[in-house]
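Hi R.,

As promised on Friday, here is the backbone we talked about, encoded as structure tokens. Could you run it through your design pipeline when you get a chance and send me back a sequence?
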């Protein structure tokens, strides 16, 4: 204990005699460390975001070519009448108005006789559709994000599709569902 008191007394005497130097030294430490502290906070924040994303970051990425213009594909995905005809032609077990799509940003949609519901988040005519998308039996308030990008490819359209934010256990089921219920149905309908 005597050693600690002795060291503290020497420190206090040093600071008292050399206050401007000690103050400058302490200030320099804080100034030099601010970018480091800021970077540490940024890294911690990024780490937190990345950890959160890793929980929801399972992605389905699919690229499909359709032998129609981007406009035709875009309009079909946003038309209650056309999408209903598409599902009716492909599956037969859906009603003639199985889709109800309010094709405005903020509009709601319901397809496959209410099995899939959501809201349209972004529309860039003939280029992009982004939806908050969910299966009706998911827990209340749980939505994933479905993004459709339309790229002209000669006389065809390359659809670049990304689906994120769904439970990992559903990846295979949803991936097959997109293939069968959307892409194959659309190909059959649009041919």
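Update: got your reply. Pasting your designed sequence below so it's all in one thread:
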């Amino acid at each position: 204990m005597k050693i600690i008191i002795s060291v503290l007394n020497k420190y206090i005497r040093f600071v008292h005699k050399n206050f401007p130097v000690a103050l400058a030294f302490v200030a320099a430490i804080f100034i030099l460390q601010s970018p480091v502290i800021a970077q540490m906070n940024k890294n911690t924040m990024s780490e937190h975001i990345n950890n959160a994303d890793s929980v929801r970051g399972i992605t389905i990425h699919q690229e499909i070519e359709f032998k129609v213009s981007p406009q035709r594909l875009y309009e079909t995905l946003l038309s209650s009448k056309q999408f209903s005809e598409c599902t009716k032609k492909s599956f037969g077990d859906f009603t003639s108005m199985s889709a109800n799509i309010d094709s405005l940003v903020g509009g709601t949609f319901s397809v496959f006789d209410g099995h899939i519901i959501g809201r349209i988040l972004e529309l860039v005519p003939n280029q992009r559709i982004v939806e908050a998308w969910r299966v009706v039996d998911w827990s209340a308030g749980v939505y994933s994000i479905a993004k459709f990008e339309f790229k002209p490819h000669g006389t065809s359209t390359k659809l670049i599709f990304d689906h994120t934010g769904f439970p990992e256990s559903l990846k295979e089921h949803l991936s097959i569902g997109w293939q069968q219920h959307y892409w194959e149905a659309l190909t059959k309908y649009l041919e």
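One thing I noticed while checking it: The radius of gyration is 29 Å.

Thanks again,
M.
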